[in-house]
Batch of 2 targets.
Target 1
Amino acid sequence: MRSRWLMTLFASIPIIAAALALQSCGGVGGPQTDTGGLPSVTQQFLALLGVDQKSATYIGADACAGCHGGKSPDDPIYAHWKDTVHAEKGVTCERCHGPGSAHQAAPSKENILTFPKATSPIVCAQCHGPTHDQYNFSAHVKLIASPVDSGVTNPGQSRSSACMSCHSGLFRNMVNDKGKVLADLQDDEIRWIAENTLTSAPHSATCVTCHNPHSKTGNLTDDGKEVMLRKKNFNTDTTDVAPGTTAQQFTNFDHGCAQCHNGRGTNPADSRLQASTSRPSMHDSNQYNMLMGFGGVEGSGPVQRNTAHANAPGQCTKCHMPDSRHSFTVSFDKGCAPCHTAADAAARTGQVKSEVLGLLTSLRGRMEAWAAANLGDADFWDYTSLIQAEGKTPPNQANVPIEIKRARHNYYFIIRSGDYGVHNAPYAKHLVTVANTNLDALNAPRPAAPKMSAEQQLRVIEEHRKKANQAEMNLPEDN
Ligand code: HEC
Ligand code: HEC
Ligand code: HEC
Ligand code: HEC
Ligand code: HEC
Ligand code: HEC
Ligand code: HEC
Ligand code: HEC
């Protein structure tokens, strides 16, 4: 698995991550002669500048202040910037926006590098080389084409907005900052994003999706550092992601990672399970729901939702970004300290994953055995679009008892989070128990567990997860 070797790779990068990689000086577009000890402007950065800016020269941040100086409450950029580490270290406006003489003479968006092109990670990579290298290995640099592609071909559809708000980092900025949706297509910026996401801005999340480039925000890291985060990365408020909230509402969730990594409309109420039978109601991103422990069918007994992991300082970033590592891969050595040693964390992870995979395999075996005996086909316990994907005609869903519908919800709830119990072992195991209790009520058989290693079980289950994703691509959004 890719994350394994990344883990080793980044564990060996020395902690000079904050050290700035020096790059060669650019020759076109009015190169700065004095960079104040900062790395020079790069060729890749200069290549972002439009023709009207290529021959401009540098005028200094104070010259921008006259017009962007905070005189209007709508444009307090200079005043805010002045207060940042960037200003202190001499990272002036023009290091990110390019030389300003032409713009000063005749202000326009054509002669200054601005949104959307200014959001390229290349702007930040001029100085944050090591961070950019780590980020380049992360999943966030990639794009799942289809949800974004639908934005290009059918730009007016709400489905596209709903997908792009988490699958395009730039679109997310528009949603967060300006409350825009794809229906605002007459807007230049929205149109640029819709048309260029696949080619020019292919990132799920870019530097400025998570960081405000101009301003302190007060959303501190777990060790109290101000790193200009747009959203806080610790939040135990579950009201916004309570089961039953619509998918659209989930995209407003106020949490650095969970704004995208949430279940997006997961709903375990019986009424919803009866009404929505084409595909699982949670998206492939329900990690926050899993961590906090809600969104599965929980039964009537006591539920342990809130674990030490949910309360780990920084939550997601504690385990996925130790030392601000931007690959977002988990580190057993740094990410799990001081609570576990690396060896303990690795052993527990292996143990919990194989246990949960075993439980899921047995659960699925029971649902298959019940369906074969009662509906005539082992696949018929599943959601209709997933049965259709096998070339079969699904049974009338009125003939599928609520117990099966509850069990399959919990089955998918666990596999779509993708961590197989590591985020919240008590909750994942509880959901399996509740599923089995429901199957007991149907007297579903307990076939002997197939002889498979944890790796083989994972392969089978991931195959199932992939099918659920494909089903989601092909169906109109229903929530
Ligand atoms: C003489 C006044 C003036 C000065 C000086 C000036 N700007 Fe501007 N700037 C403007 C105006 C007016 C606009 C809006 C242009 C438009 O919308 O067509 C603008 C737009 C911008 C934009 C695009 C905003 C957007 O909505 O996309 C950026 C970025 C920008 N300026 C940065 C700078 C920087 C950096 C400097 C200093 C190097 C600077 N400006 C100096 C007046 C100025
Ligand atoms: C560290 C890089 C960086 C620095 C320094 C910086 N900017 Fe920006 N700026 C950006 C990026 C990236 C965007 C587009 C993303 C966004 O809107 O957050 C942007 C957006 C803008 C906009 C458009 C805002 C809008 O509503 O679309 C203006 C105007 C602007 N900057 C002016 C300035 C001025 C003036 C300074 C100096 C006082 C400055 N910037 C310093 C990176 C920077
Ligand atoms: C011209 C160089 C330069 C550019 C371009 C640049 N930075 Fe920085 N950045 C710095 C320096 C220098 C520091 C101070 C870090 C240090 O001293 O280790 C810094 C600090 C930061 C910090 C930490 C802030 C803090 O309070 O510790 C963040 C976050 C950051 N930059 C994000 C960005 C982003 C996002 C971009 C692109 C939009 C960007 N930077 C572009 C040079 C740059
Ligand atoms: C609330 C944010 C959010 C919204 C809205 C959203 N997604 Fe996602 N989606 C994610 C995240 C985060 C992941 C990655 C989860 C992971 O890797 O575990 C993901 C993963 C996926 C995957 C799995 C990709 C793979 O790795 O194989 C598909 C397919 C997908 N999304 C399609 C869509 C479609 C189609 C829409 C619109 C109907 C959509 N998404 C809307 C957040 C969202
Ligand atoms: C998905 C969100 C996300 C993206 C994308 C992202 N960052 Fe960060 N960044 C964070 C978080 C969260 C932290 C604080 C981590 C922690 O708790 O230490 C951080 C920390 C930092 C710091 C401070 C490091 C330190 O040791 O003080 C810098 C600098 C930085 N990021 C730059 C960047 C740059 C440059 C990019 C793009 C190449 C980028 N970030 C992309 C979320 C993100
Ligand atoms: C703007 C939306 C967005 C934000 C914010 C975001 N992510 Fe993601 N993340 C995604 C998407 C979309 C993917 C899947 C990308 C792909 O596979 O193409 C993803 C993938 C990942 C993966 C890899 C999953 C895998 O299948 O291997 C991890 C780990 C991850 N994100 C962690 C985080 C953390 C930690 C944060 C907060 C610091 C965060 N993400 C913030 C959208 C986001
Ligand atoms: C206690 C540490 C910890 C915390 C807290 C944590 N994670 Fe994880 N996460 C892990 C581990 C360990 C794995 C890898 C499991 C494995 O071995 O596959 C993982 C896996 C993932 C994956 C990959 C799943 C896939 O699709 O294959 C994503 C995405 C993810 N986490 C996102 C998040 C987000 C978002 C948060 C915050 C809501 C978070 N994690 C909180 C430890 C943590
Ligand atoms: C803030 C402290 C903290 C951090 C950080 C933390 N854990 Fe845990 N973890 C715990 C506690 C407490 C338990 C429950 C221990 C128990 O009940 O025996 C636990 C349990 C676990 C379990 C087993 C759950 C079970 O029920 O058997 C796994 C697996 C696990 N952690 C993996 C990790 C990994 C991997 C990391 C780092 C990526 C990590 N943890 C980070 C505190 C933490």
Target 2
Amino acid sequence: MNYNFLESACRKDTNAEKYTLREELFGTDDVFPVWVADMDIDTPDVVLEAVKRRLEHPIVGYEEVPKSAFLAQIEWMKDEHGVAFALEDMLYSHSVVASMSVMIEAFSEVGDKIIVQTPVYPPFFHSVLEHDRELLKNPLKQDTTGKYVFDIEDLKLKIDSKTKLLLLCSPHNPVGRVWRKEELEEILEVCLEHNIVVFSDEIHSDLVYKPNKHIPFASLSDEARDITITAIGAGKTFNMAGFSMSSVAIPNQALRDRFLKVYKRVHFAQGSVLSHVAFEAAYTEAKPWLEDLKIHLMQNFTMLKVVCEKYSERIKVTPIEATYLAWLDCKGMNMSNKELRKFFIQDAKLGLNSGLSFGREGSGFMRLNFAISSAKMLQVVNQLENALENKFRK
Ligand SMILES: Cc1ncc(COP(=O)(O)O)c(C=O)c1O
């Protein structure tokens, strides 16, 4: 490996959300934060260098996102994921969640139903409810091996003429699945039959572990392309969420025009000068960093698995195919969600996300972000192991 992720910069004296909100979220600063989905890993040097170079010019006025930035992302999507987007398909966004809100406003009316597959990243269901749309919950189910899969029969039963949109999380946060082509095709068939437009949130698509392969929903067929709005960004991939830049790809012109009506009304504009510089540098220069990062992340995940396996009757790590978010099944601890939270905060001194915040189906689970340096990961697993040992001494 050319990059080493043994250590990372201290974030305590920055405004890092992960650290700053500890008191508010966990009632104490005395927890190691492994919650919000950014990494305690230094952003690639090539990105930081590009931004520093831009700052050598003394004027930071309004700028257009240059074509070269979107072309870099288009090239990346083609090479990495085999999907061909054109320059005119691409729109700048400062946030995937904001793009989702535009989509909801543009393609549904108050009272319409929107499909969400829980447990899922909370803004999926909050966005629906905040727009006074009805949540059509199509929970994922677990097969006999514990693997999460779509429940197509449940989906077919629940869809009616008021169902307008499906918010797809692909790869899925928090369950870590990379949806197979056949699974996505089943979803596509249902959506085509019922004229449902798909918002495919593919923000985690570059953080996929071999041999899994991300399949962009829009790449399934021409029909899929025509009903899909794809959200993609560099924020998760290269740990640069603070640059607030992603994009939406909408190849179908009628869909794009409809989306643009709301998009223009709320004025997305062109974002920050530094963002598009960072975005382009990441897509053109940071691939070697990403390849090494994924090896490191898998090592961290293995460390976590080893500890959990010692207490396998208490805590189980859901097998992971993508993302740096471990979905821990803690039902074997026989604790209420409140007790579970208390155990992690007070006994393990770790700040995780409660499974319940991803929907009722997350009850008994906790989400742990393992995108941290090796040194910090060692600290996390030691704290967890000690707490498990004290509680459930073998
Ligand atoms: C599935 C998913 N979508 C979107 C986001 C947030 O994207 P943004 O910061 O661009 O709104 C996250 C962040 O954790 C996420 O996990």
